[in-house]
Amino acid sequence: MSLLGNLKNQIIVAVILTLALVMVYINFIAPVQSEKASKASLLTQKKQELEAITKRTTGSNTIGAEEQVSLSKTRNRVPEVPDQEGLIREVRMLEVISKMSLANYNFEIGKVAESTTPATTASTATPAAASTSAQANGTTAVAALPSLAIPVKLNTTAKGDYQQIHRFLDELQTTNRLIQVDKITFAVKGGAPVKLNALKREITVNVSLVSYYAPGLQKFFKSPVPVNYTKPTGKSNLLY
User: Rounded CA gap, 216 and 139, in Å?
Assistant: First the structure.
């Protein structure tokens, strides 16, 4: 009887672990993969919009009202500088909404690929050679344009229960800045296999979030990215 009872307990534990893995995939992994594909599509769209505007405004110092609106919307999603402070504000807001505890922010900022422009020699050339040289210079100018989207990766560790993590990932889709999950792993503290409050068990999450910045936007905006904040009222000392 004891052996049979142990076998039943092992079967129950195996079934519970299987159901837990299925629940994690359905509620965490699958939504993250779907959200990642959606953000990748949005990023491609913004890159195409910026590329189209850049081509239309080449050789001109002014842009139309329609282009200004489009650029402003693109800037909100993908700024012209890494803006780590702005990214932290977005993540802090998610932390407050989801009531999770985040720590150990670590940034990995991509760099703009350097391009070299071949030097031109002062020599007499035929019209055909001049035409070929102009085409080559045009190709070099296009290649010298800054990359349209440079990644900014934020690695952090979060702690929370099932509902808090679900809320965090859900609210991640509503941020003003384009942010997507690059990698996420879970770790659950050991304990009894069956608990009535299983959804409240603390889960440690290591997550890598990826945002982007577009250096090519700097030619359209002379002032830095605006910072939204509430001015203090009725205070003479800002420290207290």
Answer: 17
Kind and range of the H or E element at 151?
Answer: strand 150-160
Q: Is 71 helix (H, G, I), strand (E, B) or coil?
A: helix
Question: pTM higher than 0.70 for the full model?
Answer: no
In the chain, the domains with their CATH numbers are 2-58+67-113+145-219 (3.30.70.60)
E strand map for the chain: 101-109, 150-160, 180-188, 203-213
Q: Which residues of the chain, if any, have pLDDT below 50?
A: 59, 114-146, 238-240
Per-residue model confidence (pLDDT) at position 240 = 46
CA dist 104 and 97 (Å) reads: 19
Q: What radius of gyration, in Å, describes the C-alpha atoms of the chain?
A: 26
Residue showing tokens 């052996």: 3
Q: Token digits for 38?
A: 């959606």
Closest CA to 182 of 213, 150, 155, 214: 155
Q: For residues 30-43, b (16+ Cβ closer than 10 Å) or e, as one string?
A: ebbeebeeebeeeb
Token readout for 93 is 């807001």
Residue 106 bridge partners (DSSP): 155
Backbone angles phi, psi at 97, to 5 degrees: -65, -45
